[in-house]
Amino acid sequence: MKPAVLWRGGSLVALVAVAAAVPLLNNPLVTNVGVFVLMYVGSAVAWNIFSGFTGYISLGAAVFFGTGVYTTALLTEHLKLNGGAVFATYPLGGLAAAVIAVPFGLIALRVRRHTFVVVTIAFFFIFQLMAYDFSWTGGTLGILGPIVNWDPNTFYNPFYYTALIVAVGSAVLAWAIWGSRFGLQLRAIRDDEDRARGLGVKTMRVKLTAFVISAFPMGILGGLYFFLQGQALPEYAFNPFYDLTLALMSFLGGFGTLSGPIFGALLLEPYLGYAQYQVTNAYVAEVVLGALFLAVIIFLPRGILPTVGEKFTSWRVAWVRRSAGAQAAPAEPAGASPAADAVKTGAAGSGAPGGGSQR
Fold it and tell me: Concatenated DSSP letters for 17-37?
């Protein structure tokens, strides 16, 4: 196995081990922040499985997240679930999001690139208005979750470990897809969809499959969010801020890479948590986020990790070349004269015998 693969695998295992130990600090505030960090890590990785691998920028991911929220909320309300029983509804929230992704994708994926972005935004607002207007969603009042009487010191631990499982599972799934034939087809679509179709790739089927796969983890995390907050509200379940944040995290870390969304989420989520508790005007945080998004697109279009990796590679190649050149430089022979050097230079630069140039 290559050293780079071993290093990346070891780094991932170490990162997961550190993340798993966070609740052992017995600090509810730190654990609560950790829940949201892991939720964004899982969501960003899932978003990248489709948008990053295919190049189709989706701004309708909140549709899947909100579907998970309301699926869990409705099941909890009608089945009178309480306590840990609610955790069993999370996979159903993911399944509902995946089901919604099928008609969503069949319509949206018929168009390309910029038009696709507009269609996903339209779908988002349709679902948001449905949550506001339909009686069975509770309208503007939403749906109240069950009251949970858990120990305050360990209240967030079940949510934390559930989010950690989803985040790790999403990362492993993305890694498996990347190295598979399916992942190769996705990247072929990103590079040149028409040529990929000419080579035999069933582009619609491949795109739709990735779209559905990416929806599943987001639906699970939506159910987790409902139980964590204790209420399903349209403005939070279907929040455009969520879509913008996922896209920014992926672009910031490295759009279309495996580790980029994880790095972007770990880098950006602390700011979001700080803004939530310290900034009184929520619009200020959104303005800063939008400005940061614009700066990343202009100055770091490939993301931090790819840019830093390319710089490091260029520096390493330049250093190797300099080292090789220094070792290969012959020692100056005794008695060498400028005339001899000129003859050598003329012979080396000549394309024909005698130093003349061929035409």
Answer: HHHHTGGGG--HHHHHHHHHH
